[in-house]
Amino acid sequence: MVSAAASSKLVSMRALLLSILMVTGTLFVSNAMADDTDGDGTDDSVDDCPIAAGNSTLDRTGCPDRDGDGTSDLNDPWVMSTGGYQEDAYHSSNDDFIMVRFNQDASQYATAENSGGSGGGSAEIRIWDTSSRNNLRTIQVSDSARDIDWSPDGQFIAVYTSDEEVRVYDATDGSLYDTMDANGETASELEYSPDGTMLAVVGYRDGNSGDGQIEIFDVDTASPTYGDVLQTLNPSSTVYYYSVDWSPDGSRLVIGGYEVIYIIDTDTWGENRTITNAFSTLNSVHYSPDGNMISACSAWGGSNARAKVYDAITGAEMWSYTTSTSCNDAAWSPDSSQVAFTHTYYQSDGASINIFFATTGVQLDTLSTAPSGGCGSSGGGNNCGTVYGADWHPDG
């Protein structure tokens, strides 16, 4: 028989245990509901743009809202909605411009120009004033450039060269700030994180003895480990990685491989999602500014190529466009309403930039550099140029 005192003590212990369970359960639920990946004050559970900070409230909650009227940029766009894009300026060269990038405030843009084409022996990185189109300075690079990117604060330009070096230059005077050795077999792409503290660098295997990989470099100028490799990624233990981009809030990294797209959580560097219905070599993958879509630009796959857009959260394909020639690069309008794809020289899509409505895939416009006869076999074919890269002005 249990005494009255023992019974009272047992009831008290049960009450205490129940209280602990209730408090613990409350804390657990509170933490689960308090996930705010992009840090904009809107819980992920109700955030329509969970990996892009924003303050929209009317049509969507927590999405980028540039003018602050409550309607998200996607549904309140400021780019031309009827097409009719026209040439505003023109730079000519005897060599190939393989990439162009605006700095964050669009006061300047940088071009990478390789002697002898994309695989030429040297490069010139030119920095231009956006308003006047004047060349402010030219950086001479002893190897050909594969990709360039501005640091978010506009202080540096990173150049990925064909000899697998990452060279960081001071954008104000063109001086070399630092050099980092990448270990991928063949240099491909690089991209600064949104906060400017990390640099993702992609190298792929091209059939020789090396392996492909993604390296994350510390590029925080205040860090004692600046230039060190923070993380090396090898998703699915393959060797074919070609393109990379950070989500707008930096919480995820998207990597383009061969017929596969990998999404990585940057807090753990583990795989968040794998998209397996991609096409051929992914020359370019980019998050939309609202973080909800991923563009995928594919190389020639035997009889055609593809330009696709995926839902970035679920991985579902939203739409696909079959191109007559390789897709080289993509650029999103700053309001996420449109996406542009660039192409190589062959047939109907040759030497062009195709612009689509982002959510539907309806083609809005085509910017063509093809000769009057077109790029078909009877119209000059291989005499067409290649549009290597594109970038969209932050003002649209």
UniProtKB/TrEMBL annotation:
<dbReference type="Pfam" id="PF12894">
    <property type="entry name" value="ANAPC4_WD40"/>
</dbReference>
<feature type="region of interest" description="Disordered">
    <location>
        <begin position="38"/>
        <end position="76"/>
    </location>
</feature>
<dbReference type="InterPro" id="IPR024977">
    <property type="entry name" value="Apc4-like_WD40_dom"/>
</dbReference>
<dbReference type="InterPro" id="IPR015943">
    <property type="entry name" value="WD40/YVTN_repeat-like_dom_sf"/>
</dbReference>
<dbReference type="GO" id="GO:0005509">
    <property type="term" value="F:calcium ion binding"/>
</dbReference>
<dbReference type="InterPro" id="IPR040132">
    <property type="entry name" value="Tex1/THOC3"/>
</dbReference>
<dbReference type="GO" id="GO:0000445">
    <property type="term" value="C:THO complex part of transcription export complex"/>
</dbReference>
<dbReference type="InterPro" id="IPR036322">
    <property type="entry name" value="WD40_repeat_dom_sf"/>
</dbReference>
<dbReference type="InterPro" id="IPR001680">
    <property type="entry name" value="WD40_rpt"/>
</dbReference>
<dbReference type="InterPro" id="IPR028974">
    <property type="entry name" value="TSP_type-3_rpt"/>
</dbReference>
<feature type="domain" description="Anaphase-promoting complex subunit 4-like WD40">
    <location>
        <begin position="127"/>
        <end position="183"/>
    </location>
</feature>
<dbReference type="GO" id="GO:0006406">
    <property type="term" value="P:mRNA export from nucleus"/>
</dbReference>
<keyword id="KW-0677">Repeat</keyword>
<comment type="similarity">
    <text>Belongs to the THOC3 family.</text>
</comment>
<feature type="compositionally biased region" description="Acidic residues">
    <location>
        <begin position="38"/>
        <end position="47"/>
    </location>
</feature>
<keyword id="KW-0853">WD repeat</keyword>
<protein>
    <recommendedName>
        <fullName>Anaphase-promoting complex subunit 4-like WD40 domain-containing protein</fullName>
    </recommendedName>
</protein>
